Amino acid sequence: MKFQQNFSQKQQQTQKLAMTQQLQQSIQVLQYNSEELLAFVENQALENPLVEVVEPDFQPDYIRSSSNRYEGEETNYLNQIPDTKGSLFESLIDQVHLNYRDTFLRKVILYLIEYIDQNGFLTVDMEEAGKEIGATPIQMLDALTLIQQLEPAGVGARNLQECLMLQTERDDFAPDLAYIVLEECFDQLVERKWKEIAQAFSIELSEVQQIFDYIQTLSPSPGRIFDRSSELYIIPDVRVLVDQNQEVHVLSNRSHQPSVRFQEAYFEQMSQKADKETEDYLKERKQEFEWLKKTILQRGDTILRVAQVIVSHQKEFFTDTQRPIKPLTLKEVSKEIEMHESTVSRAVNGKYLETDFGVFELKKFFTTRLTAQPDSTEDLSADTAKKKLQELVDQENKAKPLSDQKLVELLKKEEITISRRTVAKYRDLLGIPSSSKRKRYDKE
User: 231 pairs with which residues across the strands?
Assistant: First the structure.
């Protein structure tokens, strides 16, 4: 067999996307929320002397309302910022030094406090801790008892049962049998075996219900009162206004976002004395500034375009007091603005929309479609089904709560056809217990 190799010359055109470093950074900038964007811009300014950061002109609602209420009075806004320095550990240490003398027992107390977590629970084994510090079991118990007398009530507990008992013990308004029920029948109470509790204490089921309702008001994590993370403020990227004609307008909150300014004076000064190396450096840094400015503007424009499409689809949410949400997917929005789904996803994740009735994350407005009855033309969303499910549960007879199957049947009458499994899933998402756990034994 004769081997033959033929060579030919032809031209072939292919297309591929080159992910440059700047393109990757542009994608990342779109994903940043307002706080992350500010941190990124400030970091760029540290690396580039031609970049000056223009801080966002943002004033939280509580400051605006305060300045309007006290006209003519000088207001120190720094005094209105919540103090986040305090912690549970610091509070307990201060109370110990204030209330207990400098003895060996106080040393044991201070040692145990180091093992109290942010929820207020003691996380160390008492026997092992006693061996470590050289204290007797009685001394360890005395120290723990003194810790459990500190504020907040429930601190120093070793488990949830003890935590609830400590709070009940110090509450003068607790039901008479609440403490003893927690102590002797905690498992039955959790498992809702209330008939056993009623028989054990010779009381009515309605009294057990009263005790359970009271326990629901107690804190399972008393140390959490020192957690201030919930007080952080959200800076919305867009604002929605509804005029007198019920027309909805979407505005960009650019003044609330960081921006950059070119250091013209510094650039001119350096250019006059520049050698070749300095000229190249200044040219490179100027290009970086132009890219940064363009990227920030593109981020704002993309978020605004996505928000406009969302609002156009969800107009009734802003005009109807019931706040209905229609089915909407990322694919539909991406098709309308001719962008990739991943771009839309980055534009809505962690971005917020401000209205006169609240602030909402953009991704809240995306929800899947549900199959309606054949004779219905209404376009139903999962959000609609959840709202109707919540209404049915709110209106049910608490002595005979609706089962999941009954909820399926009632929803079907409202032209919402979903399975029992979907009802159970929506219940979990809404924080609604099962029918057996919703049953109440109030006196009629």
Answer: none
Q: Could you tell me which residues come within 8 angstroms of residue 442 by beta carbon, excluding any fewer than 6 positions away?
A: 206, 209, 398, 399
The pLDDT assigned to 267 comes to: 82
Expressed in percent and rounded to 5, the helix, strand and coil fractions of the chain are 55, 10, 35
pLDDT of residue 304: 92
* Separation between Cα atoms, residue 260 and residue 48, nearest integer Å: 11
Backbone dihedral angles phi then psi of residue 395, each to the nearest 5 degrees: -95, -5
Dist CA 406 CA 413 (whole Å): 11
Which residues fall within 8 angstroms of residue 93, CB to CB, at 6 or more apart? Answer: 110, 113
Instruction: Quickly tell me which residue has 């002109």 as its tokens.
Output: 57
Tell me the β-bridge partners of 248: 242
Q: Which of 215, 209, 183 is nearest to 194 (CA)?
A: 209
**Residue 15: Cβ within 10 Å count:** 4
For strand 358-361 and strand 248-252, is the pairing parallel, antiparallel, or unpaired?
A: unpaired
Sequence-distant (6+) residues with CB within 8 A of 8 are: none
Hey, which residues does 369 pair with through a beta bridge? 381
| The pLDDT value given to residue 107 | 94
Residue 230 Cα distances to 143, 233, 407, angstroms? 33, 8, 35
Q: Which residue type sits at 69?
A: R
Interior/surface letters 303-314, b for 16+ CB within 10 angstroms, e for the rest: bbbbbbbbbebb
Return d(Cα 56, Cα 260) in angstroms, integer. Answer: 10
User: Alpha-carbon distance 165 to 122, whole Å?
Assistant: 15
| pTM score of the predicted model | 0.59
Tell me which residue has tokens 């990124």. Answer: 40
Mean pLDDT by 10 residues, the chain (444 residues): 57 58 75 84 87 71 37 40 66 92 93 93 93 93 94 94 95 93 92 91 92 93 77 79 88 83 85 81 88 90 91 89 85 88 87 89 81 51 82 88 88 85 86 86 73
Determine the distance from the C-alpha atom of residue 375 to the mean position of all C-alpha atoms in its chain, rounded to a whole number: 40
The whole-number pLDDT of residue 12 equals 63
